[in-house]
């Protein structure tokens, strides 16, 4: 029996899932932004854009990070969704799913069916 | 590792390998037809030419897509996006009406798996033989069959990968470069990559892709309602199930129509038992319908114990094909399709980019005239050569000089220097200019572009 302590009940499963999604995506996007800006000088890119959209360097950094973050969020939330909603037939307790179906020789209890002729 | 985690892992058991039994029948033929038609298109299309180009070619280096005689330029990206949306909407529509029709007959995963299964069946025999072969010890027969299967699988996968790359590199050049052993490294990479993906997905992973990896399978419940076609077992009619001989009258023994032959389970490519109810794993391939109908025939019972039906019908309620949801999908789909095709047919096959030379504001000419220099990029998106005419619409005093002559071959991109000269009295500061590009031959090809003309400010 769990005691009703506020700490036990702080986050629901779903909240925890989302927290993980947001935080991991943030870390991944940060790493991505570091590597990307290590290789590409945003100033070079900004000059080309600047004429058309007048984007400053800081905004370019920000937008790139936002873009990366969004892609990471998309990937990890989809992953969470796929894992959380999968068929549970692979679970020994068969929770919500079905056990492995029994298979028998069709003619075993049905004399009119002759096994291998079933094409 | 903590004990708890061990216990957590051990709660999962591996699903057993599925050995789908071969099935014949109406829906199996339909699927065979779909497989032949779709894969036929896939393997043959790159070899067919259309208006002088490969019928479908995504020429990435040149950034041009050729699709059945229409060329899409980077500027036409919007059309490709819209076509993707159309494809998505079609999927919604079909799903709302007919359920997972896509999964059972048209999904590449299904279609290629089917071919890999054919090969497997050809070499190793049907279900019973395959199970026995897998269980037997390695002997010459097993080695021979397994190697033959692998050779056929790998060859087929390589051909698939080759064709895939053939959609991005002209396929004739590609086959030439393979036979002369001059395949580029990127082409080789993608060829092997796609072959590997085909082999892995259709040969090894199979139903696991549908069960664990496919997002469509999870999202489809949002498109389903109680009038959507699903494949279901008629529980009221079938239960209680049990074996019997043909001569027995089921009701005498208190039996339903299901004779517990488990053939519906044996043919199922995802290894589930449809009699347990609607399941997310069911890809609606209708193999179980085909086989159960044959069993019913053999027993002299009415067909349709497993059938295409709807939840409403199962609950003995009326079922409607036309309902708000399908209307909305159909309406969106129709209007978008018509719109896109209309606009593709009416698109102007000329693209003009006019950029003022950024290095100089303006130049004063000796005869008291002001000159601005522009770089002009013209793209002739047509299949015919064109001569272009350039005019300034909102200013008659200006003179326009262009070099070289704006004549372009079919699909040519031309860069020109455009000089515009105006008398110094024409204005002060920045003047807006509307420049029109048109052809002598076809009035429909016409495009106007606005730009700025700089004059002294004082
Ligand atoms: S194939 Fe038909 S009769 Fe045989 S077990 Fe399945 S539902 Fe019952
Ligand atoms: S339950 Fe029937 S329709 Fe569904 S995947 Fe299995 S065989 Fe195909």
In total, how many domains does the architecture of chain B comprise? 2
- Please summarize the sheet with the most strands of chain B: 5 strands, antiparallel
- Please compute the radius of gyration of chain A using only Cα atoms: 27 Å
Radius of gyration of chain B: 32 Å
The shape of chain A is elongated
Share of helix among residues of chain A? 55-70%
Task: List the total number of helices of chain B.
Answer: 17
- The shape of chain B is elongated
Biggest pleated sheet of chain A: none
The count of strands of chain A amounts to 0
Q: What is the straight-line distance between the termini of chain A?
A: 56 Å
Give the helices and strands, then pairings.
The complex is a heterodimer of chains A (119) and B (458).
Chain A (H helix, E strand, L loop, with lengths): L12 H27 L2 H12 L3 H29 L34
Helix pairs in contact in A: 1-3
Chain B lengths: L2 H8 L15 H19 L4 E2 L2 E2 L1 E4 L4 E4 L2 E3 L4 H22 L2 H6 L1 H17 L2 H9 L4 H27 L4 H9 L5 H21 L1 H7 L1 H5 L10 E4 L1 H4 L11 H4 L9 H5 L19 H13 L6 E4 L1 H4 L9 H22 L4 E7 L6 E3 L3 E12 L5 E7 L6 E5 L3 E2 L4 E11 L6 E10 L6 E9 L4
Antiparallel strand pairs in B: 1-2, 3-4, 4-5, 6-7, 8-10, 9-10, 10-14, 11-13, 11-15, 12-14, 15-16
Helix pairs in contact in B: 2-5, 3-17, 5-7, 5-9, 7-8, 7-9
The structure holds iron/sulfur cluster (SF4) (2 copies).
One iron/sulfur cluster (SF4) binds next to helix 15 of chain B.
Give a written overview of the molecule.
- The complex is a heterodimer of chains A (119) and B (458).
- In chain A, 57% of the residues lie in helices and 0% in strands.
- Chain A has helices spanning 13-39, 42-53, 57-85.
- Chain A starts with 12 loop residues before the first helix and ends in a 34-residue tail after the last helix.
- The relative contact order of chain A is 0.10.
- Helix content of chain B is 44%, strand content 19%.
- In chain B, helix 5 (108-124) packs antiparallel against helix 7 and helix 7 (140-166) packs across helix 8 (171-179).
- Chain A binds chain B through residues 78, 81-82, 85-87, 89-93, 98, 100-104, 106-113, 115-116, 118-119, and chain B through 10-16, 21-24, 126, 128, 211-213, 215, 218, 242-246, 259-263, 265-266, 271-273, 276, 279-281, 291, 294-295, 298-299.
- One iron/sulfur cluster (SF4) binds at residues 233, 238, 241, 258-264, 275, 291-292, 295, 305-306 of chain B.
């Amino acid at each position: 029996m769990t005691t009703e302590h506020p700490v036990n009940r702080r986050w629901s499963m779903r909240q925890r899932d989302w927290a993980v999604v947001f935080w991991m995506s943030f870390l991944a996007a940060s790493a991505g932004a570091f590597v990307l800006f290590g290789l590409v000088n945003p100033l070079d890119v900004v000059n080309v854009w600047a004429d058309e959209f007048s984007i400053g360097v800081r905004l370019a950094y920000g937008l790139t990070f936002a873009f990366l973050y969004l892609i990471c969020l998309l990937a990890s939330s989809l992953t969470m969704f796929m894992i959380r909603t999968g068929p549970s037939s692979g679970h020994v307790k068969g929770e919500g799913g079905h056990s492995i179906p029994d298979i028998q020789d069709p003619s075993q209890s049905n004399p009119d069916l002759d096994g291998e002729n079933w094409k | 590792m903590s004990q708890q985690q061990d216990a957590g892992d051990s709660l999962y058991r591996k699903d057993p390998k599925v050995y789908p039994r071969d099935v014949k029948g109406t829906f199996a033929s339909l699927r065979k037809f779909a497989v032949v038609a779709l894969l036929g298109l896939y393997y043959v299309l790159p070899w067919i030419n259309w208006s002088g180009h490969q019928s479908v070619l995504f020429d990435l280096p040149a950034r041009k897509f050729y699709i059945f005689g229409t060329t899409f330029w980077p500027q036409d990206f919007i059309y490709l996006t819209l076509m993707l949306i159309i494809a998505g909407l079609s999927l919604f529509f079909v799903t709302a009406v007919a359920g997972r029709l896509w999964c059972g007959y048209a999904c590449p995963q299904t279609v290629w798996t089917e071919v890999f299964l054919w090969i497997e069946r050809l070499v190793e025999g049907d279900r019973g033989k395959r199970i026995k072969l897998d269980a037997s010890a390695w002997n010459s027969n097993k080695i021979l069959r397994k190697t033959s299967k692998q050779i056929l699988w790998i060859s087929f996968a390589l051909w698939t990968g080759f064709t895939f790359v053939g959609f991005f590199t002209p396929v004739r050049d590609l086959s030439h470069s393979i036979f002369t052993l001059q395949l580029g490294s990127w082409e080789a990479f993608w060829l092997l990559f796609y072959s590997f993906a085909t082999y892995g997905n259709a040969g090894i992973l199979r139903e696991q892709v549908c069960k664990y990896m496919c997002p469509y399978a999870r999202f489809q419940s949002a498109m389903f309602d109680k009038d959507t076609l699903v494949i279901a077992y008629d529980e009221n009619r079938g239960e209680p199930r049990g074996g019997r001989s043909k001569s027995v009258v089921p009701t005498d023994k208190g039996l339903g129509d299901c004779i517990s032959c488990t053939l519906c389970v044996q043919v199922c490519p995802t290894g589930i038992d449809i009699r347990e109810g609607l399941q997310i794993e069911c890809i609606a391939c209708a193999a179980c319908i085909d086989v159960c109908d044959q069993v019913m025939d053999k027993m002299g019972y009415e067909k349709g114990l497993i059938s295409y039906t709807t939840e409403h019908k199962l609950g003995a309620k009326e079922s409607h094909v036309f309902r708000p949801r399908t209307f909305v999908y159909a309406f969106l789909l129709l209007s978008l399709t018509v719109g896109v095709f209309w606009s593709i047919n009416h698109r102007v096959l000329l693209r003009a980019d006019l950029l003022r030379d950024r290095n100089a504001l303006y130049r004063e000419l000796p005869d008291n005239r002001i000159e601005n220099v522009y770089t002009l990029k013209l793209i002739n998106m047509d299949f015919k050569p064109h001569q272009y005419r350039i005019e300034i619409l909102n200013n008659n005093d200006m003179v326009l000089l262009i070099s070289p002559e704006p004549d372009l071959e079919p699909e040519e991109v031309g860069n020109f220097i455009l000089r515009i000269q105006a008398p110094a009295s024409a204005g002060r500061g920045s003047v807006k200019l509307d420049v029109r590009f048109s052809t002598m031959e076809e009035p429909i090809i016409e495009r106007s572009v606005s730009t700025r003309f700089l004059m002294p400010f004082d």
